Amino acid sequence: MAAQKVRSRWKCDPNETIVATIESVLWAQLRPKRDGVMARPPPRYACQQCGAVANRWSGKCDACGAWNSIVEETPVTITPKGLGGGAKGRSLDLVSLEGETEDAEHLPCGIVEFDRVCGGGLVPGSALLVGGDPGIGKSTLLLQVVACLAKKGVSCAYVTGEEAVGQVRLRARRLDAMEPRIVLAAATSVRDIVSTLDKAGAPQVVVIDSIQTMFVDTLDSAPGSVAQVRASAQELIRLAKRRGLTLLLVGHVTKEGMIAGPKVLEHMVDTVLYFEGERGHQFRILRTVKNRYGPTDEIGVFDMTDRGLNEVSNPSALFLGDRGEAVSGAVVFAGIEGTRPMLVEIQALVAPSTLGTPRRAVVGWDSGRLAMVLAVLDARCGVTIAGQDVFLNVAGGLKIAEPAADLAVAAALLSSVSSAPVPRDTVVFGEIGLSGEVRPVSQTDLRLKEAAKLGFNNAWAPKGARKRSSGLAVREITRLTELVARLDEHAVSVIAVRAR
Ligand code: TYD
Ligand code: MG
Question: What pTM, to 2 d.p., does this model score?
């Protein structure tokens, strides 16, 4: 017998674990052929961070690179012949793609920032996931959302697995969200929740806070493991589709490294929102990551106060704050977030380094992109910043992903190097290519209009922006060397003024 041969050969190996692993794999493959008995499924290992499945344990997940995140999970039974041996399935009705269907109905809650991020409001029968770091304000946001819906006559349920009912009540009182149409429950068993809500007259909107605390009793694994999070979400989503209710799931991004991140749920739900922000700032940003019923890349801006989250309808004014006199290294970037223009200040500081390898510290922007801008400045413009520490910060805790910020970053760096401030009433935007050219970016008119609205008079922008000036004096910049020359002019005039 092949299995026995292999067994005897490997039995003399001192490494018992290798013997056991090879044996279990061979056994699983050979046994059904020999006597038709169902194979013992090999063990399965799943990453608790990203959900990747492997057939052996390792300290590091190959898929996401996380350390110590792989745990053994109860294997699923493998049927040797697939579905072939079972009963025949029901034949499906195949319909034509062409046909009449109504658009998804959106139910706005009245918090404009939230509604826009959701694509116009909540969709009945859909599941929405709000992910974010613990303590960022997810429970506060969803309690405010259900309170607004309840004020409009929508019946809502708030199921908490993390806090006691009394704690939620206290918070609701603080947020001025005491609404009789909201029902509360402290529960973690998905079976209990489904039994309670699976009936006529059940609430139309259900919040589950958080999915990591929920469990289904048919699985052995602990609440928060990938298997439990997946199974709980699946049951709840099935209920939402069956009953046409809107499910709002809260998911923590990480907690002690052992709790499954919401990444494993992203493909199961219809909409994924991430709530983010810097802990030191009171601003919170709600970002669409996926939306089956609306656009992605939208953001909603909130301000965390002692009475909950306030909407920020004019984020540019908030991110710019009270700007005093022009200082070197600070540049206003005219950006776009989703469909909205947003002005933010980019601050750079270039300082002599005491370290062998100078520091490159970036907050709110991509450090790879900063390295590229520094390399282009060096190679194409002769401005060398090597040997100096570079600090780059996007004010207000916003994270910028747009390449259009390149020119503003370059201007901030050059301004810091030359100690020449960029004029206070100037906005800057444009993408930089590796050959030192400045490329046009999308939505130029929206950017310029927002700048004009907020009292800016000048713009340094790529070619083609002048014809969309919106009343601003636009200086077109086609090559990065022109920006260097422009800041040199300023440096000379600033030094002349200081000398006087
Ligand atoms: P919470 O909504 O509990 O966060 P999450 O559900 O994401 O874990 O928010 C917790 C933080 O928000 C906590 O640090 C206190 C702060 N907070 C306020 O500043 N003001 C408020 O009105 C509320 C309710 C919370
Ligand atoms: Mg919470």
Answer: 0.73
